[in-house]
Amino acid sequence: MKNKMLINLASIVFAGSVTVAVSAPPDWSYEEEPYWGALEDATQPVPLSYPYAECNLGKHQSPVDLADEKIVKSRSLNRLAVQYGTDMPSFINTGHAIQVNISQNFRGGLKVGKELLPLTQLHFHEPSEHVFGNKKFPAELHFVHVSRDGKIAVLAVMINIGKENTVFQTILDNMPYRSGEENSTARVWLKLKKLLPSGVSTNNLKYLTLAGSLTTPPCSEGVQWYILKESITISEAQLEYMKTFYSNNARSTQDLNERSILSN
Ligand SMILES: [Zn+2]
């Protein structure tokens, strides 16, 4: 009996793997945002044919409105520290954002309590995705960290207009113009710490935190967000230059549902 069940199970798994092998996630755009969950992968049977369903069905989606009155002070939050240093990354135009892919041998990351989550990439949105009541920032930077067991933590930094940021300029100068293109031969060192607010204690950052999701399809949940309370600046000219790559690449705010936004 047991053997027969195992054989049946094996045939189901085998049948499943045949169809999964040809999966091709559908293209998406910000114009289609209300329907991301309904975009179909024509190569797949139902329910796999809706690979972005979580965008519409998820209850812990990002970004959200971080209005003051929703924020709860907590004394028991983990200490948050960054160990960024310098890296020789590659520069990628993803088709939806400008992105910096951190090199394989980079050892830094985000330290949440005692756990270090390696930094894998950073990218930019214009305008900001998170909003603060009726305030929006001109842009937002996301540092994406992935632990060895697949946990994702994003450190978000709001961007204001002001003094030019030289590291951001290096990113713009090395970014390929064509969608989907990667520049992996720039061989420039980036001082990643310079993309953090000046004067903050990188050993003990002030932040807001909540459980959320990726803000682009497939909108997967289980992402822990850390939003810095201090912002950085880029110049007006830098913002305008960035908009020649992508503009309005920001998802609208999502319902908080039963989540809490905690602050240290
Ligand atoms: Zn992002």
- Sheet of most strands: 13 strands, mixed
According to CATH, the homologous superfamily of the largest domain is Alpha carbonic anhydrase
Helical residues, percent: 10-25%
Number of separate helices: 4
**Based on DSSP secondary structure assignment, what is the total number of beta strands?**
17
Shape: globular
Organism: Nitrosomonas stercoris
Keywords: Lyase, Metal-binding, Signal, Zinc
EC number: 4.2.1.1
Enzyme class: lyase
Write the layout of secondary structure elements.
Layout: H1 2-20, H2 54-57, E1 71-73, E2 80-83, E3 86-87, E4 90-93, E5 98-101, E6 109-112, E7 115-125, E8 131-132, E9 135-136, E10 139-146, E11 152-161, H3 166-174, E12 182-183, E13 190-191, E14 207-213, E15 221-228, E16 232-234, H4 236-243, E17 261-263
Parallel strand pairs: 1-17, 11-15, 11-16
Antiparallel strand pairs: 2-6, 3-13, 4-5, 4-12, 5-7, 6-7, 7-10, 8-9, 10-11, 14-15, 14-17
Outline the structure in words.
- The protein contains 4 helices and 17 strands.
- It has helices at residues 2-20, 54-57, 166-174, 236-243; strands at residues 71-73, 80-83, 86-87, 90-93, 98-101, 109-112, 115-125, 131-132, 135-136, 139-146, 152-161, 182-183, 190-191, 207-213, 221-228, 232-234, 261-263.
- The strands form 3 sheets. Strands 1, 2, 4, 5, 6, 7, 10, 11, 12, 14, 15, 16 and 17 form a 13-stranded mixed β-sheet that branches. A two-stranded antiparallel ribbon has the order 3-13. Strands 8-9 form a two-stranded antiparallel sheet.
- A hairpin with a 2-residue loop joins strand 8 (131-132) and strand 9 (135-136).
- The N and C termini lie far apart (56 Å).
- The model is unreliable at 1-21 (pLDDT under 50).
- Zinc ion binds at residues 123, 125, 142, 215.
- Zinc ion is lined by residues 123, 125, 142, 215.
